[in-house]
C-alpha cells in the first residue's frame, strides 16, 4: 500500500516523458532512491505493472539504485556511510565526533528511461 | 522492422507534483497569516491528546481548526470537536498518509480568513507520512515512551525530516528503560536543527515549552 502513491507518481512522470518523446514502448526506467526510504523494490515494480497495464509503459523494468546514507563530520569533514542505523553508531569514523550531518540518503529521483522510438 | 532504443533524460523528483501542490497550500496559508502544523506519530503515541492539551493551553487566545485524518473513523474528530474547535475529517480510505491533494480538499471547508492556527493530525504511522509533504510550515513527530527509544533507528526518515520531536508519556519513564538522552542523541545526528519537547499529556509536565514554541511560530507568521 505504502508504495502505491510513490509508484503512481513514477508512472505519471514516465508516461508524460514517453508521450512527449513519441516513444512506442518504455523498456526500462532508472530510479535513484535514498537508503532511508522504506520502499521495497519488489512492490514498486508490482504496482508499476498494475498501473501501466495497457499503456506504452507496460512491461517496463524499474532499475532502482539505492543512494547510500552518507554523513559528514562537522569537526574533521570526513565522509562516512551508514548501512544500518540499528547496528552502527552515528559517530564519525575518524575523529570520532558525534557532530555529524546527513548529506545523502533521502532521494526520490527519476534519472532517465530507455524507450523504443 | 528495426526499432531504435533511445535513452530519454528525465531528471525529475518523483514527488514533485505533490511538492508543487504543497507549496501552493503553504503560500495560501502564508498570505492569510495562518500557521499550519502537521502532527505525525504512531497510533497511540498521543497525537490527539497533544492536540487537545494544546487547545486547552491556548485557551481561546487563537482561532483554531483541526484537520483529522484517519483511514475510516470519526473518533478523533468527535473528541476534538467536543472542545469547541472546528474540525474537518479526512478519510484516506485505506491510504496510509495524507497528501497535499487531500489537504487542499479539506481546507475548502475551513473558514481560513477567520483562523490563526490549523493543525493536521496525520494518519497514525511512522513510515508513509514522512514521504508526503502536506504543505505544513512545520512538521511535528511524536514518539511516546512505551514505543521504545529505538524508533529513530527503525524509522530514520520520519525523524530526519521533522522540525520538532515531542517525546510524550514521560509519566511512563519509571516503568521502562527508555532513555530520553539516547533518543535525542540519535535524532540529533540525523537532524541537527530539530527541537525537542519531552512532556506528558497526562500530567501536563513539560507542556509549557511546547506551547511557547507554538505561540512563537504563530506570531512569526503574523508578523
Give a description of the structure:
The complex is a heterodimer of chains A (117) and B (223). Chain A has 117 residues and is of the alpha+beta class. In chain A, the strands form 2 sheets. Chain A has a 3-stranded mixed beta sheet, covered by helices on one side. Chain A is elongated and about 55 Å long. In chain A, helix 1 crosses helix 2. Chain A has one domain: hypothetical protein PF0899 fold (2-Layer Sandwich), CATH 3.30.2320. The relative contact order of chain A is 0.26. In chain A, 26% of the residues lie in helices and 34% in strands. Chain A has 2 helices and 6 strands. Chain B has 223 residues and is α/β, with parallel strands linked by helices. Chain B has a single domain (33-222), classed as P-loop containing nucleotide triphosphate hydrolases (Rossmann fold). Chain B is 36% helix and 22% strand. Chain B contains 8 helices and 8 strands, in the order βαβαβαβαββααβαβα. In chain B, strand 7, helix 7 and strand 8 (195-198) form a beta-alpha-beta unit. In chain B, helix 2 crosses helix 8 (207-222). The termini of chain B are far apart. The model of chain B has no long low-confidence stretch (mean pLDDT 93). Classes of the chains: A alpha+beta (117), B alpha/beta (223). Chains A and B meet through helix 1, strand 5 and strand 6 of A and strand 1, helix 1, helix 5, helix 6 and helix 7 of B.
Describe the structure concisely for a colleague.
The complex is a heterodimer of chains A (117) and B (223). Chain A has 117 residues and is an alpha+beta fold.
- Whole-number average pLDDT of chain B? 93
Portion of residues in beta strands of chain B equals 15-25%
CATH H-level homologous superfamily name of chain B:
P-loop containing nucleotide triphosphate hydrolases
Count of β-strands of chain B: 8
Core attributes:
heterodimer; A: 117 residues; alpha+beta; hypothetical protein PF0899 fold; three-stranded mixed β-sheet; three-stranded antiparallel β-sheet; B: 223 residues; alpha/beta; Rossmann fold; seven-stranded parallel β-sheet; 8 helices; 36% helix; globular
Amino acid at each position: 500500500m505504502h508504495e502505491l502513491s510513490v509508484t503512481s507518481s513514477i508512472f505519471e512522470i514516465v508516461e508524460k516523458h514517453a508521450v512527449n518523446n513519441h516513444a512506442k514502448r518504455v523498456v526500462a526506467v532508472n530510479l535513484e532512491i535514498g537508503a532511508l526510504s522504506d520502499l521495497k523494490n519488489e512492490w514498486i515494480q508490482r504496482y508499476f505493472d498494475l498501473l501501466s497495464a495497457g499503456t506504452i509503459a507496460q512491461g517496463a523494468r524499474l532499475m532502482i539504485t539505492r543512494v547510500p546514507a552518507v554523513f559528514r563530520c562537522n569537526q574533521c569533514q570526513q565522509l562516512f556511510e551508514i548501512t544500518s542505523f540499528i547496528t552502527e553508531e552515528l559517530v564519525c569514523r575518524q575523529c570520532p565526533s558525534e557532530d555529524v550531518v546527513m548529506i545523502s540518503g533521502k532521494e526520490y529521483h527519476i534519472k532517465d528511461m530507455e524507450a523504443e522510438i | 522492422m528495426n526499432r531504435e532504443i533511445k535513452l530519454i533524460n528525465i531528471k525529475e523528483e518523483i514527488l514533485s507534483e505533490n511538492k508543487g501542490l504543497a507549496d501552493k497550500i503553504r503560500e495560501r496559508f502564508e498570505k492569510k497569516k495562518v500557521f499550519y502544523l502537521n502532527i505525525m506519530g504512531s497510533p497511540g503515541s498521543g497525537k490527539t491528546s497533544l492536540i487537545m492539551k494544546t487547545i486547552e493551553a491556548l485557551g481561546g487566545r487563537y482561532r483554531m481548526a483541526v484537520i483529522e485524518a484517519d483511514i475510516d473513523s470519526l473518533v478523533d474528530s468527535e473528541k476534538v470537536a467536543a472542545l469547541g474547535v472546528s474540525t474537518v475529517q479526512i478519510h484516506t480510505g485505506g491510504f496510509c498518509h495524507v497528501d497535499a491533494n487531500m489537504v487542499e480538499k479539506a481546507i475548502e471547508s475551513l473558514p481560513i480568513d477567520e483562523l490563526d492556527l490549523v493543525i493536521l493530525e496525520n494518519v497514525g504511522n511512522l513510515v508513509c507520512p514522512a514521504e508526503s509533504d502536506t504543505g505544513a510550515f512545520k512538521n511535528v513527530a511524536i514518539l511516546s515512551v512505551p514505543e521504545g527509544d529505538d524508533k529513530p533507528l527503525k524509522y530514520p526518515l520520519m525523524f530526519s525530516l521533522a522540525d520538532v520531536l515531542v517525546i510524550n508519556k514521560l509519566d511512563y519513564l519509571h516503568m521502562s528503560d527508555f532513555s530520553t538522552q539516547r533518543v535525542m542523541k540519535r535524532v540529533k545526528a540525523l537532524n541537527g536543527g530539530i527541537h525537542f519537547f519531552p512532556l506528558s499529556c497526562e500530567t501536563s509536565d513539560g507542556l509549557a515549552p511546547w506551547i511557547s514554541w507554538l505561540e512563537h511560530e504563530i506570531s512569526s507568521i503574523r508578523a
